[in-house]
Amino acid sequence: MKNLVDTLLAEEWQHWSDQQPRYARPLGGGLTNHSFLIQTGSDRLVLRINAANSSALDLNRSAEVEALTHASKANLSAPLVYSDPGHRYLITRFIDATPLTLTRPNAIADLSRLLRQLHRLPQTGTHLDYAAKAETYWQSIQPSAPLRASLKQLREKIQPRLIHCSQQTDNHCLCHNDLLPGNLLVDNTGVLRAIDWEYAACGHRFFDLATVTLGFEMDVAQQRTLLAAYLPRPATDEDWATLRLWQQVYRYLSILWYEVQRNGKASPLLSTAALQSEIRALTAELD
User: pTM surpassing 0.85?
Assistant: First the structure.
């Protein structure tokens, strides 16, 4: 990987800088791509090398760039500098920031504000079909996978809900679709920004709400506060039912994502036991 970085810095820097950059250090945090801090003059940039298994993960790099362009102009992301036309890598400005935690004052208010602003961005030409996304993941799961039988049982139970969600056209807007804590950073001026837009597409706004509430492991009171600030009004029983449905959809897609990532890896991101536990929990919830 370092050899590829060196090659890009030596041969392609003219596309995005007026002086040759130098390598600084790798950046951690990403589960899919590889990112590196680079220095060009007084500027610090992030070079992100796109994942080799982008197709298996059903990543649309063109859609990512389109969404990131809108978000960058609205100051909701790390500013976009350059996107390689071949989608091998992406350059953004480095931001001095720390991951958002719910212990930070006004964290939920800031989250709801970012969600509202994000969902008002111009829509892109890419729409997320949740059922189709799941089927793409299924095509990348090996027939001999140890968890395939339990995954098939879960699939049978959630499929009607998944199809129902895919057929909904109300409340559609541009969504980030991966608003986990590691992708939500507070910069040194106090501005909350979202990074890693590779799953961005137009879809149902409650999918982002589901991702946020589950990713931050919000309790009922925190979820209530987020919904009231986002909507903005007290959540109704229908709102709660909608959120629960989209939480189930997110959990299912997340399970499949982790299973795809396990293929051929000696050290998977999530252990077999942990993934099996989540499969059982969601299956039981759907009974």
Answer: yes
> Average pLDDT for consecutive 10-residue bins of the chain (287 residues)?
80 89 81 84 89 70 93 95 92 93 96 98 93 93 91 96 88 93 94 94 96 98 97 95 97 94 67 94 94
Beta strands in 144-232 (DSSP E): 172-175, 184-187, 192-194, 201-204
DSSP state of 218: -
- Determine the Cα–Cα distance for residues 91 and 138; give it in Å rounded to an integer: 31
Q: Give CA separation, 87 vs 62, 84, 90, in Å.
A: 8, 5, 7
CA 111/CA 104 separation, integer angstroms: 11
First CA to last CA distance, the chain: 46
Q: Tell me what pLDDT residue 55 has.
A: 65
Fold of 2-68+77-94: Phosphorylase Kinase; domain 1 (3.30.200)
Host H or E run for residue 37: strand 34-40
Pairing type for strands 89-93 and 43-49 reads: antiparallel
| CATH value of 99-286 in 3.90.1200.10, 3.40.50.150, 3.30.1490.110, 1.20.1260.10 | 3.90.1200.10
